[in-house]
Design brief:
Hexapeptide_acetyltransf, Acyltransferase, 9% helix, acyltransferase activity, mainly beta, UDP N-Acetylglucosamine Acyltransferase, domain 1, acyltransferase
Length: 238
């Protein structure tokens, strides 16, 4: 019966939004506070999306934030410094406990896929043209850092040339990232994979369906997938 009630509410966005308002006690709280300096910035929030205690802090021009239907954002800060940047939150994506989407420079993009659930993460894109893409049906725990760059320059002592330019981060569909993880520049994590707790991922992995972990992360197990539900063996049921 409980599952049927949940399914009934999820199929009706207005009821879902009302239930969330009641659950969080946010009826009288602002949904998305806008602190914007600059021209031609656009924020589009679908009527069935739900934001509470969120802030859009923008300095620049021609920046875009899109939040699609059924998305649920709690305590998220959108921080943009620069021009022609884009943040896209797809249908039914969730930030449950907070987070920050941080963009600096020009023509950068953050994309969060459909039905992806995030407890609390800092997602930062820096340097022109950089992108972070998180696919569909992913699960990210808390205290997670995903970034395309190091924020500051590292130089070769002899040539004085910079050696740490930014690089895109791609997290494919159905990836589970456990708590206290860092996903650094240039990383590509494939479908159906798991990142173990307290891992620092510094390189890409070509295989799908692997558990990676450690500092720096390496493959711990192959040929796996995962499920949000706890599945008990018949013999273990009481």
């Amino acid at each position: 019966m409980k599952q049927r009630i949940k399914a009934f509410i999820k199929q009706r966005p207005i009821l879902l939004k009302l239930a969330l308002v009641i659950q969080t006690g946010s009826l009288l709280k602002p949904t998305l506070t806008k602190k914007i300096r600059g021209k031609q910035n656009k924020i589009t929030v679908d009527g069935s999306a739900f934001c509470v205690n969120c802030v859009a802090d923008i300095i620049g021009r021609y920046n875009t934030i899109i939040i699609e239907e059924g998305a649920r954002l709690n305590g998220v800060t959108f921080y943009i410094r620069g021009n022609s940047n884009r943040i896209f939150i797809a249908k039914q994506a969730q930030f449950k406990r907070g987070g920050s989407l941080w963009v600096e420079d020009e023509r950068c993009e953050i994309r969060i896929g459909e039905r992806t659930e995030i407890e609390d993460a800092h997602i930062a894109v820096t340097e022109p043209g950089s992108t972070i893409q998180i696919g569909k049906d992913c699960l990210l725990a808390y205290d997670i850092d995903v970034r395309t760059g190091d924020s500051h320059s590292i130089l070769d002592a002899v040539t004085q040339q910079r050696i740490n330019y930014a690089n895109d981060v791609i997290i494919d569909d159905h990836v589970w990232i456990a708590a206290h993880c860092s996903i650094l520049k240039g990383v590509h994590i494939r479908n159906d994979s798991i990142v173990a707790t307290r891992s620092v991922v510094t390189k890409s992995f070509d295989q799908e369906g692997v558990i990676i972990g450690g500092n720096p992360a390496k493959i711990l197990r192959e040929h796996i997938t995962w499920n949000r539900d706890r599945i008990y063996e018949p013999s273990a049921q009481v």
